[in-house]
Amino acid sequence: MSGLSWMDVAGSNDAAQDPNGWPAEEQLLEGLNPAQRKAVVHGGGPLLILAGAGSGKTRVITRRIAWLAARGGVGLDGICAITFTNKAAREMRERVETLLPTRGSWISTFHAMCARILRRDVETLGFEDGTRYTRDFSIYDTADRNSLIKRIVKDLGYDTTRFRPAQVGAWISEQKNLARRGEGEDSLVEGIEHEVLRRVGERYQETLRAANAVDFDDLLLLVLELFDRHPGVRDSYATRFRHVLVDEYQDTNHVQYLLTRHLASAHGNLAVCGDPDQSIYAWRGADIRNILDFERDFPGAEVVRLEQNYRSTQAILDAAQAVIRHNSQRKEKELYTEGEAGEPLGLLECGDENEEADQIALRIAKLRSEGFGYGDLAIFYRVNFMQRALERGLRLAGIPYRIAGGVEFYQRKEIKDLVSYLKLIVNPDDDVAFLRVVNVPARGIGDRSLELLSGWAADRRVSLLRAAASSEARSQIRGRAKKGLEAFAGLMENLRDFAGRSASEALEALLEETDYLTWVVQSSEENAETREENIEEFRANAETFDSDDPEGGLRAFLEDIALVSEVDSLGEGEDAEGRVTLMTVHAAKGLEFPVVFLPGLEEELFPHFRAVMDEAGVGLEEERRLMYVGLTRAMKRLFLSWARTRTHFGQSSWREPSRFLRELPQDLAAESEPDEVDLLGAYDDREAGAGLGEGDWVMHEHFGRGQVERLRGSGVNARATVRFPSAGTKTLLLQYAKLTKLGAGS
Ligand SMILES: Nc1ncnc2c1ncn2[C@@H]1O[C@H](COP(=O)(O)OP(=O)(O)OP(=O)(O)O)[C@@H](O)[C@H]1O
Ligand SMILES: [Mg+2]
Q1: Alpha-carbon distance 425 to 99, whole Å?
Q2: pTM (2 decimals)?
Q3: Same domain flag for 90 and 226
Q4: Is 56 in the pocket of ligand 1 (CB under 6 A)?
């Protein structure tokens, strides 16, 4: 059959063609090296793929899914594959679907998988107090969680500035997961504070239950409870899935490990892959022992190592390996590339964070002229606050960008409002959603009326919407609010039937009944137009969702939205092609870009100061792994930078270059492109920028008039430090800065 392309095979009546249109072996194994093939065709039983960055682990998992579905006789719905982010899941699904003539797979994140399981089976799970969740449960994202916690802290009479919702939320989340490990409570918090946290935590969990709502932790914990307490349910999944595959296994936590075990319990057909050097979520409970102990936990495991990197140039790979070798807690792995040596790394030393952003913008312009598109470029930062300066620099230079972590879209007021309405249609007990929209658009319902309503509801243990629908409850409330509540309850009653309809039908009905768009347009807020556009975009999202998943309906749509976790979404539908991507290094895991910028390589920033302070050095090793992840995302070009001063919380401080820069091989840095600022080499102070002298006044196109304070470097490296009265002091590369001399200083 060699010589025929896949299309030929698929389209012919050749005897070799699979009668169901499944692809031939050759096609499934094309573009894989022998070790990768071995992993793809591995029959059954536990399989551990242990390999460094860019060696094709994710490619192997993807092909193995297709292989098992096509050749292993289990079909696509007999396979459960788990990835770390929604984006990774989507990509994997798309690739598998182009390989196979079938759709409908369980390729998702742990959270999405658990949400799906709970939608089917949560009603099996009863609690001690006789209550149970129904399949219409709401999923609370972090913002919902925090707003609920804030309300509880206030209701219990504590100070929300001392007990900040985000911190309390993080504590609760940690406790829930710790409890699962049987490790008891966090002993760090003691005394009164501890008592408060506990009370808030208890009330939080009760309130969630009463609102038929779960948070992200509950999604996983409830499935675990379901599997532990109901072996029948567990077995139905463990036998339905004949194979279980997990990517990025080094970052699974204990609960995820237990879930994986349950899923593989009937057959032991579990394939995991990972790279211990890329374990970067210990701070969130990931347990590297899961991958290190795999062979002990799953006896008889076959181990496949992949040693060839297909992603990066030699220069990039050398840099990454030089850095990671400084970790003591690791096993050395082979990793080589047959690819090109590649360009040396670019190293930039900058005056401050604004100059750093400007320098990056200049590089980007240059890379564009070399043929790279904006979509090829990514900037990864260690800490979120760095985003602001970078954005500013890109905006000034007119460079289009997008920011990953696009909960943003769903956190916008108008979208959050509409989503809350939709949630309330599906789950009338969702009090967080109720409080968000009961007075939007305004219905004259104030805090006092809501307090009365809450009291009535709490006494009778019913939700706020049910209370609002009761004329007895409303009789306690006077005036406009009374009418408002009645109108709201009536509105929700009218919309109730849309719970079982498609996402766009429900949304259209909602917009019509509430007249929300008119309200937005008529509001005098200056950004009414943007808000209208956002609503249009949301409508389009709903339509796309319906056409992609005609069976799903409103419930599945809401689930999809809820699961867009902080880590990952990249603003669906935005044209990724034409924009530079900005994201945290954590979020970049598993991705690759032709060009990567890593700014902020300074002590106490990257490595983060908490890690630098950690005497045991554990935190530092995790930071180094994070650096390794950042470096290994780059395919062709890599730019590293740091700034001598940086402002944070209004405080400007002097910075030291990161130790990770010193850990790079010197020759990679020394051979920087001629027009890169040579960070590690000595500066030549003698030959200063031609024609300019210290003290001269100059003109800059963005920063205006300024006075030259210092000149350094020569030729393409010549730089001037200029004090601009309107923009502060900047160090500029003369080659790019286009300074016009105004006159000599005195
Ligand atoms: N045998 C191969 N031939 C050519 N290209 C390959 C091969 N295997 C993988 N690649 C390519 O190499 C790149 C890295 O692969 P992949 O993302 O699967 O690696 P990974 O091990 O999952 O990386 P990470 O550790 O960063 O998650 C991808 O662009 C992939 O398409
Ligand atoms: Mg991968």
Answers
A1: 39
A2: 0.78
A3: yes
A4: yes
